[in-house]
Amino acid sequence: MSPESTGQNEHYIRVARRRFRAWRGDRPFWAGLFTILGGAPIAYFPYADLHLGSMTLTMSTTAGAGSLIIGVLLITLGLTMWFHHIVRVFAGIAAILLALISIPVANIGGFIIGFLLSLIGGALSISWAPGRPEGEEARADERTAPSSEQPYAERPEAELQGAAAVPHQQSAESDTAADADGGRHRAG
């Protein structure tokens, strides 16, 4: 390859790995993974057969359909966390509720394994927040930091933001009779 060529200079595995890292950083990846891994044992154990030598132990219960529904919903919520991360808070709350419901319905929450994984995944999904681009962090700190040149009472109103803004209060000289009376007018 010549230096003038526009061909790819990096190995395709490095490029794919970098793209995956960027994709993973834009969404609650670990929350979705824990939720999916938690839904699998909840859905699987009620339909599993355990073979001990020549003896087969069937773990099917009457709650098999409920376990399957809870497990499939948890897997779906994990995929939702990955591909529709806008609704991550809803998906996290739903995952926590389904994990709690799986304790009495699905063999003690997939023998506690599925319960714990789903609970951790839901909590991670609720607590995840999208990151800011690198240059934006310093600018955001500059905008929200109060200036120390002027005391709070003397700062211009444009600098006071949100709940810190104090509404302009009228003095006693500018009150009208209606204002002083609480806004009530007497009929007379």
Automatic annotation (TrEMBL):
It comes from the Bacteria. The keyword Coiled coil does not apply. Coiled coil: none annotated. It holds the Pfam family DUF6114. The chain crosses the membrane at residues 28-47, 59-79, 86-105, 111-129. Keywords: Membrane, Transmembrane, Transmembrane helix. Residues 133-188 are annotated as: Disordered. Residues 133-144 have a biased composition (Basic and acidic residues). This is Integral membrane protein. It comes from Streptomyces badius. The lineage of its organism: Bacteria, Bacillati, Actinomycetota, Actinomycetes, Kitasatosporales.
